[in-house]
Amino acid sequence: MSQKTRVRFAPSPTGPLHIGGVRTALYNYLFAKKNNGTFILRIEDTDQKRYVPKAEQYIIDSLNWAGIPFDEGPGKNEMLGPYRQSERKELYRQYAQELIDKDKAYYAFDTSEDLDRYRNEYQEAGKTFIYNWHNREKLNNSLSLDENIVKQKLEAGEAYVIRFKTPLNDTLELYDLIRGEMRIDTHTLDDKVLFKSDGMPTYHLANIVDDHLMEISHVIRGEEWLPSLALHHLLYEAFNWEAPKFAHLPLILKPVGKGKLSKRDGDQLGFPVFPLNYTDEKTGETSQGYREAGYFPEAFVNMLALLGWNPGDEREVMGLEDLIAAFDLENVSKSGAKFDIEKTKWFQHQYMQKQSLEELTQAFLPILKEKTDKIFETAYVSKVIGLLQERAIFVADFWELGSYFFKAPDTFDEKAVKKAWKEDTTEIVSNLLIFLQEQTDFTSSILEENVKAWIQSQELGFGRVLMPLRLSLVGSMQGPHVFDIMEMIGKEATLKRLQYASANI
Ligand code: GLU
Asked: CA end-to-end span of the chain, whole Å?
C-alpha cells in the first residue's frame, strides 16, 4: 500500500446525485487536499438493472459546479484505470477465481426459486434464512456437490453465482476513524454473492478489488455501508491485502421528523435535494437543483461541509481553502445532521454579501434582459444592485426587490394604497409635481433637503407626502431611501410615475 493519501468517491450512476452524495465527495475532496493527496472518481456501474446512462455526466457536472473536481477518474489521468467498473469486468472474474482456488469462495447453483422457497419455509417456522456456515453444506453448491458434477454443470453453462465462504468462529475487531472500535461475530454474517450470474461482480467484490488496485488509503463513505465493513474486512484478509482505513459518515436527516433526507422532503417543504436540475427520463419530471435555484456553489459547499462536521471552533462562513485547512475526520460527528433550509439560505445570503458588484451585475444582466426589452447601462445596473445587495439572497431577488428601477409600476399594492392615499393626496401630489418640475438638481441629498423643506412650508406631515411618493415610484411601500430611488430613475421617470399614480389610484 502506498503511503500517499488516495481517496475515492464511488457513486453508482443510477440517477441524480443526492446532496448526501455530494457531501461524501466533498469530505473526500477536503481530506485529499488537506493531506496533499489524490481525489479519485470511480463509477460503480456493475448493477445493469439500475444503470442510467446520463447519470455519470450528471455526477461529473455536479462535482465541477461545486468546485471539487476529481484528480483521477473517467477520461482524466487514468493511471490506475479504467475508472468505470463496467470496463474492468474481466479483472473481477480473475479475482473471484483466485478466491475459489484458495477455498475462500464457492460456486452456488441455487436458483432464485429455490432460495425464495427456503426463505418462505424458514419464515413459516419463525426463522430467517441465512445462506452461510450452518446450511451451506446442504445447499446446491460446489461445497456440497461432487467435484465432477460441479465441473459438468460449469461446462454445461448452468447459471451460477460465486459466494464468499465466510469464515466461522471469528470475532472481528473493526476500526472506524469516526466511530472507533467495533466487534463483529462472523457467525452472524451470510455468504454474500461476490459474482453474479450475469457475469458482473457485486458491489462488494468490485469495490474491494478496485480500492486495492487503485491504492486507496482511506475509504470515506456513507453510514449505510457500515454493515458491509465486516465483509470487506474479511475480503481483504482472504486476498491477503492490507485494508485501507475506513470512515463512515453520518446521515443527512430530514428537517422535521425522523430518518434520512429524501427527495420527498424537498418536494414537500420546497427546497432542492440535488445539486443540479435533473429530469427523470421515465416520468419526465424535473427536480430542481441548487444551481438552478440560484445558490452560489461556494454557499452550497460551505453549507454541506458543516452538515456533519465542524472546524472545532465557532467559524461558519468558510471558503474552500479554509475548509481544506481545517478539515479533519475527528471532527465529523457520529450522529446524523439535520438539514436546515433556513441555515442554507443564511449561507447563501452571507456569500451574496461577499460578491463584487461586477460579478453580480454579470449574473443579473441575463435575467434583466428576459424581464424587460430595454437595454440598461451596466453602471446603472451595478448601482441598483449596490442598493439592494444587503437584502438580496439570490441574484433573481434583484428583480423581485427592485423591478421599479427598470420599469414603472403598473399595479399598486392595495394595503399600501389604503394607507398612503387619502382624500387630499391627489391634490398634494399635483402640488408636489409642480415643485419637482422646477428642480434642476436630482441628486439624492439635495432633493431630500429641498423636498423636506417644501413639505414643511406646506405645513404637511412627512408621511402625507413621502408615502404617496414612494407608492407612486415603487408600487408598494418597499425599497431603499426614496430620494435614492428618485436620483436613480431621474426626473422624467419620477414625474411620469407620479402623474400615472394620480390618474390611476
Ligand atoms: N457504489 C457505492 C455507492 O453508491 C459506493 C460505496 C463505497 O463508497 O464503498 O454509494
From this structure: 79
Any idea of the CA torsion for 427, 430, 434, 440, to the nearest 10 degrees?
130
DSSP string, 414-472: HHHHHHH--TTHHHHHHHHHHHHHT-----HHHHHHHHHHHHHHTT--HHHHHHHHHHH
Catalytic residues: 263
Q: Minimal CA–CA distance to 339: which of 448, 231, 263, 437?
A: 263
The mean per-residue pLDDT over the stretch 474-496 comes to: 96
Handedness of CA 122, 227, 335, 9 (dihedral sign): negative
Angle at the Cα of 385 from the Cα atoms of 295 and 391, rounded to 5 degrees: 60
Domains of the chain with bracketed CATH:
84-249 (3.90.800.10), 263-353 (1.10.1160.10), 355-394 (no CATH), 414-504 (1.10.10.350)
Taking only the tens place, the pLDDT of each residue in 258-302 is 999 999 999 999 999 999 999 999 999 999 999 999 999 999 999
What is the pLDDT at residue 81? 93
pLDDT of residue 129: 95
- Number of Cβ within a 10 Å radius of residue 51: 14
- Report the pocket of ligand 1 as residue ranges, CB < 6 Å: 10-12, 44, 203, 207, 221, 225
E strands, 137-212, are 161-164, 171-176, 180-185, 193-195
Pocket probe mutation, ligand 1, options 27, 207, 214, 231, max atoms within 8 Å of Cβ: 207
Identify the band that residue 1 occupies on the pLDDT scale cut at 50, 70 and 90.
Answer: very low
For residue 221, the CA-to-ligand 1 centroid distance in Å is: 7
How many Å separate Cα 88 from the centre of its chain? 29
* The pLDDT value given to residue 169: 75
For residue 94, give the 3-state DSSP assignment: helix
Report the separation in Å between the CA atom of 222 and the middle of ligand 1, taken as the mean of its atom positions: 8
Alpha-carbon distance 297 to 303, whole Å?
10
**Distance (Å, whole) CA 127 – CA 119:** 9
What is the distance in A from the centroid of ligand 1 to the CA of 287?
Answer: 23
* Amino acid occupying residue 383: K
Residue 499's pLDDT is 97
**What does the pLDDT look like over 346-402, one tens digit per residue?**
999 999 999 999 999 999 999 999 999 888 999 999 999 999 999 999 999 999 999
At 471, list the grid cell.
407608492
Cα dihedral 261/264/270/275 (nearest 10): 60
